[in-house]
Amino acid sequence: MRAKGKATPNRAAEGVPEIHGALSSAISNIVRALGSVAGVVALWDEDKHKPFEFASYGLNQKTMLQLGHVIDGAIPHLEAEHLSKKSLKELSELLKHSSTSALDRFHVVALPLKSEGHLAGMLLLFHPSEKPQLIVDHPAVYNIIMDEVGIVLQNARLFQRLVEEKRWLEAVIRHSADGILIIDKEQRILGFNPALERMSGWKPEDVRGQPCSEVLRICAPVKPHEKFILRKIDALNAPNPVEALLIARDGGQISVEANYAAIQAEGGEVLGSVIGLRDITARKEAQELQTTFLSVISHELQTPIAIIEGYAGLLSEEGMDLPKDQMREKLKAIKEESRRLSEMVDTLLYASRIQAGGLELRREPVDVPSLIRRVAQRMGQISKLHAISVDLPSSFPTVIADYERVQEVLTNLIDNAMKYSPKGGPIRIEGEVRSNEVVISVVDSGPGIPRGDRERVFDRFFRREGGIATVAKGTGLGLFICKSIVEAHGGRIWVDSPPDGGSRFRFTLPRLEPAALPAITLDRLLAGVNK
Fold first, then answer.
1. Sign of the C-alpha dihedral computed for residues 198, 199, 204 and 206 taken in this order
2. Which tens digit of pLDDT belongs to each residue from 131-153?
3. Which terminus of the chain has fewer Cβ atoms in its 10 Å neighbourhood, N or C?
4. Which residues lie across from 179 on neighbouring strands?
């Protein structure tokens, strides 16, 4: 069954056509040189203990399928340096019985392939005699065969190693939490990883080949729209990371830490650059938060400490003989400022516990109207300039909540309303009943909150600038605490402005029982249709 001048690769490792071609060419040359009818060469993966590449000559796919499993099991038997005639005959018979009837009249010759002293595979020949005469007459021919197959094997292993390294590199880039951007020496985009796709909003296929200065711009933190940070590629090997801004697809600015590395040819020619971009937004926010914290605390501590120190120094001076009423007044001031300091420290510790997940709730049925009226009455005694009113539906349902925590939210919101309407005015507490929750609102008559600040007012230490906000005292933690308490209850809190001005802070709490839906009978439904 002479082959029709054609070698057939039967099983591929990793789909590498170059290895198929070399191996097919080798088996074709070997079969024709030895005068065999057909042959198979199989390369052995010693680590995985199985063949990883096959090529045949003179055998069709059907025959190879019949021989495949036998070849898999036969190769380990060739591991001995010298096979006995008995074992070789047994192996030949095993392979022969597994072949097609068209090959029954030919002898099966199985030769081990060695590489650096280790089993590298098997050469299987279908030959008219028990052993090719050329190998019998010229044993060196076997070494020539080994050399040719050895070259293919080395190339296969090298290519396999390159494929594996490529896959490792691709996996590292694909799963990296940092953005990785690759550009050529003209700063045209060659590609980037999924992390940078998420950061920027761009897809690689949409911007590949475009200048980096037009999309995926990496700019200096100062005047980002005027200065493009990438200049000459050969200067990109910066020893230290550079802080920059990444301009996203929607125009947003993302604070990043950029690392640059030039890609160079062996001769030193710059081919492009790899740029690593780490999102440092959270770190920048933490730094700003720390700065704000120090600024707020130093500002808020300065006044009470100065008053306490001044009055205490005055009262401790020798020979100071103040009238009792003046002494009582100054001691009262010291007591009041000490109370303020104590409350400030308590608030800071409370906020820290909340941030660390230490907020615990004691949920129980709460009569919200009585709670609201009690807080309104108590807060109304603090300021004579503000008139606090309560407007609630007559059938206000019971809620499941922590009584003390809800009282704290109401107290903070009313206190906040008083701070930002220092000239006085009405403060309304309103209620709304919904199917699964209730909505409580605290409405003041102050200057209101700009739309751009309405989300940020609930952030830790956030304080608005300008106007009344500049002189209002506080740590900037009150609304943060309110939000944490409300969300711990499964509710929401937000702020808007009513039509008549001011600010309206609203929060929700879950009802003890959802509102019952009205029953609709079939008669009522049909009656409604017939009308």
1. positive
2. 666 666 666 666 777 676 667 76
3. C
4. 277
Q: 50-57 and 38-45 as β-strands: parallel, antiparallel, unpaired? A: antiparallel
Q: Cβ distance 209 to 191 under 8 Å?
A: no
Report whether 247 contacts 230 (CB < 8 A). no
The half-sphere exposure of 531 on its side-chain side, counting CA atoms within 13 A, is: 5
Residue range 311-330, pLDDT digits in tens: 788 777 777 777 888 888 88
Plot region of 59 (φ>0 → left; ψ -120 to 50 → alpha; else → beta): beta
The answer on pLDDT for 214 being more than 70 is yes
DSSP 262: E
Q: Which is more confident, 508 or 269?
A: 508
User: Which token pair is 204?
Assistant: 């690689």
Separation CA 22–CA 323 (nearest Å)? 110
d(CA 480, CA 478): 5
Q: Is the pLDDT of residue 75 over 50?
A: yes
Is residue 448 predicted with pLDDT exceeding 60? Answer: yes
Q: Per-residue pLDDT tens for 338-359?
A: 877 787 777 777 777 776 676 7
Give residues with Cβ within 8 angstroms of 258, minimum separation 6: 218, 229, 241, 242, 243, 244, 275, 276, 277, 278
* Helix locations, 45-139, DSSP H: 61-74, 85-98, 133-137
In angstroms, the Cα distances linking 25 to 55, 183, 293, 469 are 9, 40, 75, 84
HSE at residue 146, side-chain half, CA atoms within 13 A, is 16
Q: Is the pLDDT of residue 51 over 70?
A: yes
- Tell me the C-alpha distance between 299 and 309, whole Å: 16
| Separation of alpha carbons 492 and 513, rounded Å | 18
Q: Measure the CA–CA gap between 9 and 59, rounded to whole angstroms.
A: 10
Task: Determine the distance from the C-alpha atom of residue 229 to the mean position of all C-alpha atoms in its chain, rounded to a whole number.
Answer: 26
pLDDT at 470 > cutoff 50: no
Q: What is the DSSP letter of 117?
A: T
Backbone angles phi, psi at 171, to 5 degrees: -65, -40
With cut-offs at 50, 70 and 90, classify the pLDDT of residue 16. low
Q: Which residue has the tokens 């102050």?
A: 446
What number of CA atoms fall less than 13 Å from residue 262's CA on the CB side? 19
